[in-house]
Amino acid sequence: MAENRTWTVSSPPPPPPSSSSDSSSEWQILRFIPFQSSADEGFWRRLSSLKLDTLGLDQSPIPITGFYAPCSHPQVPNPLKLMAESLPDDPLQLVIGNRNKCPVPGTLYNTNTLESFHALDKDALLKMEAKKIFDDIISGKADEDCAVLSRFLLISFADLKKWTFRHWFAFPALSLEPPATLVNIQPASKAFSSEEAKSLSRACNEWRNSNMTAGVPFFFIVIASNAQVTIRPLKDWEAFHGDGEKLLFGFYDPCNLPSNPGWPLRNFLAFICLRWKIENIQFLCYRERRGLADLELSLVGEAVVLLPQDWRSPCCVLKL
């Protein structure tokens, strides 16, 4: 039996689903729908074996991997999942190129007692994980390994005698002040010409079907004047010269709501603003249906994110 709680950091309460708006005379705070999470029985069995055979009483943090995929149903979001593969015997055994298992790094603190579980300084641990995200942005590591932008934290207590597991997920987020504002958001099908939409769908499907990019959840999209679409990894940004071309920043969106982006966009916006000093950002919330790009379900929006005055100091973005 597993008891689950999920925390998010610096998150305003999500609004109820509302109708999509193409434009608004008054900008509003951009609200992100928190990541959902789940851990299957295979994960707990693997953790139990690891504790009995290797960890013993050691409570040191353990690197783990969660998996998620873009939303694939208008009524159901895709959670971050933990399974047996999240704790591989050999890190090199991690699933690579599986379109339904986009890997996300995390940190696990497994305690020996329920008292230790409750006594952990959760705020301090969250700040530590958020600082890792900030450091990865500033250092350029996130350019090469963009999955670190969705880093997560898991705290657990495994009572092996009763086969009971208590756990909390946490998804740290960088807090930019003032908050990101939403200029507009609409179904992606309404944001492009018919030729652009066809080219975008084709490019997204190629990206998702390639073993090299299927598990890469953040990217940028270039739409040329002839409506041809190219999708590039973040590491190609320095070589990009986009005069006269449309530019969007895309991400795998686990959220299913018709007017709100999912949680991964939050740190992605912080990355774009902090790393590349871009403040007016057009984004694509990529979602799919039956394994193919779905521009009716996907969203295109525009956000304004102002660069903090002390942006090089983690203190300005690590507020809880």
From TrEMBL:
<comment type="similarity">
    <text>Belongs to the ATG7 family.</text>
</comment>
<protein>
    <recommendedName>
        <fullName>Ubiquitin-like modifier-activating enzyme ATG7</fullName>
    </recommendedName>
</protein>
<dbReference type="InterPro" id="IPR032197">
    <property type="entry name" value="Atg7_N"/>
</dbReference>
<dbReference type="InterPro" id="IPR042523">
    <property type="entry name" value="Atg7_N_2"/>
</dbReference>
<keyword id="KW-0833">Ubl conjugation pathway</keyword>
<feature type="domain" description="Ubiquitin-like modifier-activating enzyme Atg7 N-terminal">
    <location>
        <begin position="30"/>
        <end position="302"/>
    </location>
</feature>
<keyword id="KW-0653">Protein transport</keyword>
<dbReference type="GO" id="GO:0015031">
    <property type="term" value="P:protein transport"/>
</dbReference>
<dbReference type="GO" id="GO:0006914">
    <property type="term" value="P:autophagy"/>
</dbReference>
<dbReference type="Pfam" id="PF16420">
    <property type="entry name" value="ATG7_N"/>
</dbReference>
<keyword id="KW-0072">Autophagy</keyword>
<keyword id="KW-0813">Transport</keyword>
<dbReference type="InterPro" id="IPR042522">
    <property type="entry name" value="Atg7_N_1"/>
</dbReference>
<feature type="region of interest" description="Disordered">
    <location>
        <begin position="1"/>
        <end position="23"/>
    </location>
</feature>
